[in-house]
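Aim 2 progress update. The chain analyzed this quarter is reproduced below.
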Amino acid sequence: MVSLNHFWVFSLALLLLASPLLQVVRCQTDSDEAVQATEEANDTGIVGDDVQDLVDESFLPAPGIDTVCVFPKNSARLVTAGEETELLVGVKNDGDSSLNVIAIKASVHLAYDHRLLVQNLTTQVFNNGKVPASAQATFPYLFAVSKFLQPGSFDLVGTIVYQIDQNPYQSTFYNGTIEVVEAGAFLSIESVFLVTLGASLLALLGIWVNGKIQSLSKKAKRAPKVEVGTRSTDASIDEWLEGTAFTQSQANKSKKKK
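Predicted C-alpha cells:
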C-alpha cells in the first residue's frame, strides 16, 4: 500500500516538473510560427483576406512604373464568349525600390458608354510577384467573358495592383476595345467586312482588265486605210509650170482625149 502511494506521489511530481517544460516548448513553437508568418507578411506586404480588400479599392499609379499589355497570337483581340483568353502584362520598374505585384483584375464595359459595367472578370492573385528596381517582368492573365454575352465590340479595362514600401498602388495596363465572338464562329464582323472589301476590289480589277483587253483587241482588228484617187497638185507648183513644155503637153493630151 505504501509503495502504491509512493508511485502516485512520484507520478504527480513528474507531471508538475514536466508541465513547465511543455509550456516552454509550446511557446517556442508558437513563436516560430509567428516569426514565419511575419516573414511571409514582410515578403508580400499583405496577409490573407487583405488581398481582397486591396483589390476592391482604387489607388493611384506609382511614379516610375510603366505597364504594357500584349495579346499573344491574337493581334485582332478576338475574345470567344465562354472560353479563356490569355494576355501578358509587362511591368517595368524604373523606381528606386522593388515592387510586389499583388493581383491583376479586369472588367468589361459598353463601348459607347464606359460607365455601364457589363462584367467583372476574374481576379488573379500572385504570391511571389516581386520586381526589383531597374528591372522588368511579365505576368500572365487569363480571363473569360460570359458565354451569354452577345457578340460585338466592348471595352476591356485591365488593372494591376502592387505594393512599394508597403504602400498600395495600381496601374491600368489596358483600356481598349475587344471583339467578342460566339463559340465556333470563324468569322467576325471585321473579318466579314475585310472579305467583302477584298472581293469588291478583285471584281473592279477584273472589270478594268477585261476592258483593257477588249480595247486592245479592237485596235488589232482595225485594217490600215488606203486612200485611192488622184493626187492633188500644189497650186504653187502649177503656177511655176505654166507656159512650159510640160503644161503644153498636158493640154494636148487632154484635147486628144476629147
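Residues 65-176 form a domain with the Immunoglobulin-like fold (CATH 2.60.40.10). The helical segments are 2-44, 50-56, 189-221, 235-241, 245-257. These observations will guide the mutagenesis experiments scheduled for the next reporting period.
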